[in-house]
Amino acid sequence: MTSPLIAIYPGSFDPITFGHLDIIERSCHMFEKLTVAVLKNPNKTALFTVQERIEQITAVTRHITNIEVDFFTGLTVEYAQQKGAKILVRGLRAVSDFEMELQMAHTNKTLNQTIETIFLATSNEHSFLSSSVVKAIAQFGGQVDHLVPVEIAVALRDRLKP
Ligand code: PNS
Predict the structure, then answer these.
(1) Which residue out of 12, 27, 53, 131 is catalytically annotated?
(2) Is 117 in the pocket of ligand 1 (CB under 6 A)?
(3) 27 is catalytic
(4) Chain mean pLDDT for the chain
């Protein structure tokens, strides 16, 4: 019997955007199970807590069955190993992402040679989109409904209201 093809989609997801959701939906078609793993990073100040981000991702992926939402601390490859996952998924929006992502993939390969990174090209309409862009717009009261699911737009308005 072959083991199930489990993939991990690691990230900050502060907050999840339509770009992330696109990668999640496409990955869930490719793999038997996808774990969306929120990095608990004590060195980075986030707008939403890890628990809030887990709840947000869970809410906006409720239509997907082969998904798990979790958090991790430390190295992604060690987390993947614990989960029995051999694949890390990352989205590539533009050439500007490539350098950093390639460096990360190579670093992860030196840490664990059995784990592969797979890049999915972000859909064209999301190629400019990032959590930072969304936060920058929301901070000044701008519309983000076309960039994030409605639950996230509401959470941003609540968190950033003056
Ligand atoms: O959504 P992000 O912030 O681009 O995600 C970056 C993330 C979480 C994938 C990356 O920072 C990461 O894997 N951090 C965990 C620490 C680690 O494994 N470092 C070694 C690879 S550089």
Answers:
(1) 131
(2) no
(3) no
(4) 96
CA 108 to ligand 1: nearest atom: 21
- For residue 15, cis peptide bond before it (omega within 30 degrees of 0): yes
Q: What is the pLDDT of residue 162?
A: 74
All domains in the chain, ordered by first residue: 6-124 (3.40.50.620)
Residue 1 confidence class, pLDDT cut points 50, 70, 90: low
Q: What is the pLDDT of residues 13-29, one digit of tens each?
A: 999 999 999 999 999 99
Assess whether 44 carries a catalytic annotation. yes
- Distance (angstroms) between ligand 1 centre and the Cα of 89 equals 12
Q: Look up the pTM and report it.
A: 0.97
Structural contact between residues 129 and 91, judged by C-beta atoms closer than 8 angstroms = no
CB of 104 closer than 6 angstroms to any ligand 1 atom? yes
